[in-house]
Amino acid sequence: MRADAIASRLIEGLYSEALLLADETRAYFDQGNASEREGLTPAERVLFACEALKASTRLMQVIGWLLMRKAEAAGEVPVTDPSDPGRRLEEVPAIDADALARFPARGRQLVLAGFDLHQRVARIDQGDAAQEPSQSPARALLHRLERSI
């Protein structure tokens, strides 16, 4: 399997995961947790809302980054320099561990899943920016193999 095909499948898988997680997170924070929120103090509800906003922001950044990679792969937009700051996944605020510890289990699970997904995509983004294709012997060999097939 070609490296481009592997990268494309990885992006598609992450994109599907991000969409599903975003939908679950939105549903939970919008409507699915009313009974769980009743057990929170007013201060905890504010913390809950702040973490919900950060969770949504993380997921939207991941989805945007993945959409751009999909558009580049499809030739819909020009491929840009991986080290271009406008192409990079933005850093996000850290999770408030104290607030998260007070959340209902499902809310905590969704926040942590979104944070994990953002970290995984950030590692891919950092690898893209750090790697110069012309300087990678392995990538050069892959390109030579692809041309010979």
What does this structure look like?
The chain is built from 6 helices and no strands. The protein has 149 residues and is mainly α. It has one domain: Helicase, Ruva Protein, domain 3 (Orthogonal Bundle), CATH 1.10.8. The protein is elongated.
Q: What structural category characterises the helix and strand content?
A: mainly alpha
Number of helices: 6
Topology pattern, helix = H, strand = E? HHHHHH
Mean pLDDT: 82
Give the CA-based shape. Answer: elongated
Number of beta-strand segments: 0
CATH superfamily: Protein of unknown function DUF1465
CATH topology: Helicase, Ruva Protein, domain 3
How would a textbook summarize the main sheet?
A: none
Low-pLDDT regions: none
Helix content: over 70%
Rg is: 19 Å
Could you name the CATH class?
Mainly Alpha
CATH architecture: Orthogonal Bundle
Short description:
This protein has helices spanning 3-32, 34-37, 42-73, 97-101, 105-130, 137-148. The chain has 149 residues and is mostly helical.
Give short descriptive properties of this protein.
mainly alpha; Helicase, Ruva Protein, domain 3; 6 helices; 73% helix
